[in-house]
Design goal:
Blueprint (H helix, E strand, L loop, with lengths): L1 E2 L2 H8 L5 H4 L9 E4 H15 L1 H11 L3 E3 L3 H14 L19
Parallel strand pairs: 1-2, 2-3
Helix pairs in contact: 1-3, 3-4
Length: about 100
């Protein structure tokens, strides 16, 4: 299982500069965990940039994964796992207005 943060979802959905680096995380979304806090942040960001309908579509994509409330244990497990594997993806820079695209 993999947990992608909100920035990763936004980068992938908008085909941002780092989308290719996030692409492997989305090859099988059913193997992902999506905290409800990511759904909240993603909905809020997309609704502000692209409107409510696009925001609902983005959240619908997250529903293909295992959606869970973000508990302390899940947060610490994700942080520990990342630290142990020394795997981290760079944080995207949202200085440009990305064009929202829907990926299937």
């Amino acid at each position: 299982m993999i947990l992608v943060d909100t920035c990763g979802w936004i980068e992938w959905l908008t085909d941002g500069n780092l989308a290719d680096q996030y692409e492997p995380c989305f090859e099988d979304v059913t193997q992902s965990i999506v905290p409800t806090s990511v759904q909240f942040e993603l909905y809020k960001w997309v609704a502000r940039k692209e409107g409510e309908q696009r925001a609902l579509e983005a959240v619908a994509l997250t529903e293909q994964a295992l959606v869970v409330p973000l508990s302390t244990s899940i947060a610490l497990l994700a942080a520990t796992s990342q630290r142990r594997t020394n795997s981290h993806l760079p944080m995207p820079s949202f200085t440009q207005q990305p064009a929202f695209i829907r990926r299937n």
